């Protein structure tokens, strides 16, 4: 979907421990994932892949996340009307009934998706393109009793209360499938549109390899405190 661009990482040793970063309200993560620094995306070659839809009760003490919407997109140059995508909730976490997209199923839309609440999703060198909207169950971030972390290399080791939903996604006829996530965070009587940061999105690809990858988040603890990544600059490029 996007040309992979190598971005070097410079690590410097600090004299004081690294301060934990806040956990985003919404995130995506995939099975057997590696992080591509050029596109700031978790990527996997698994097919089917296990997609984690992650919500946290921070930063505004969120009660739950309503209108959870998963956007699945493919590059315009990669779009094949005979291609298919199946997303199936993994029980007992979510309803296991599959959603079938593409040929013989839900047709793709073209353009820039509308966000829950108001506005459209920022293009971030993905949109406009072919995409599907999948409406998921609420994320019960204050009551589900799960612990979530910041799923990025420089997440800082912070954790929060949250909810994680697991989905099996398989695809055929597309080289890459990209995932974005949005919803409405409900805090008492107030609501707020939220989008997973584009440094916390996910992608499956059938071939090729990322230029700069690292182990999954649990392995990052081996790096120890006191290392901070510098010189990471987002550079997203659309493949026409």
The major β-sheet equals: 8 strands, mixed
Low-confidence segments, given as residue ranges, are 3-20, 208-216, 218-240
* Whole-number total of structural domains: 1
Strand content: 35-45%
H and E order: EEEEEEEEEEEEEEEHE
Oligomeric state of the chains in view: single chain
- Tally of strands: 16
> If helices are DSSP runs of H or I spanning 4 or more residues, what is the number of helices?
1
Give the distance, in angstroms, between the N- and C-terminal Cα atoms.
9 Å
* Integer average pLDDT: 81
Task: Sum up the overall morphology in one term.
Answer: globular
Query: How large is the radius of gyration?
Result: 18 Å
Helix content: under 10%
Structural class: mainly beta
